């Protein structure tokens, strides 16, 4: 049953094209593959994009970590995951270099190859495309994986697009983990609250207190704010994360955040830099 569910034939590929899979940009982009379409060897993720305002379909932990970094970077404008490559072009490349084009194992139908991320980024004042394939480092020892990566590399080379492979060894784990902790706190408007604007109001009060409480640890500060503002425990911590992800307050996300150290590592956005921003 699982095999039939995930198999591709020409009819299914035609339906995906008819649905507009792989088209659009920003909030309107539709990935070629969603988490429901393929079996994943790891955990899948569906984070809400800060830049696009839509749900992104990520098929592994490594994809999710890279997504967090791309979504946080000020140089990245748009992120399109599971981006389809023109099948006729990839088949021609495979034939030219003498390797087998990917096929469905059950139906033997030539598959539509995808690139994990196609992004619009700003470089030296110009908007350019970059394509990134995400793979566990140990998978790059597999000859068949290398063959498929070579098809992808040549495809984007012919398009004049900067392509590269990102492995788990390339991803700064602390940075990705820190962004992941705050990522889903970007919006507080949709949370259940006593009245509209309640959390925004409390967040603003907390932001004003941060510079005056650097003698406290984050745990102490949040406990005091919860008590002073009459909020349930851990509400202030959620609002601190909201303030960081909305860049009202800043900290160096490349470093391990010590919640039991004096709060000197957290400061108003106007008083310091925001840490790593490149993509």
TrEMBL record:
Record carries keyword Hydrolase: yes
Keyword hit for Hydrolase: yes
Listed GO MF terms: endonuclease activity; nucleic acid binding
TnsA endonuclease N-terminal domain: residues covered: 74-168
InterPro entries: Restrct_endonuc-II-like, TnsA_C, TnsA_N, tRNA_endonuc-like_dom_sf, WH-like_DNA-bd_sf
Pfam families per UniProt: Tn7_Tnp_TnsA_C (PF08721), Tn7_TnsA-like_N (PF08722)
Annotated ranges, domain TnsA endonuclease C-terminal: 170-253
The protein's name: TnsA endonuclease N-terminal domain-containing protein
Keywords: Endonuclease, Hydrolase, Nuclease, Plasmid
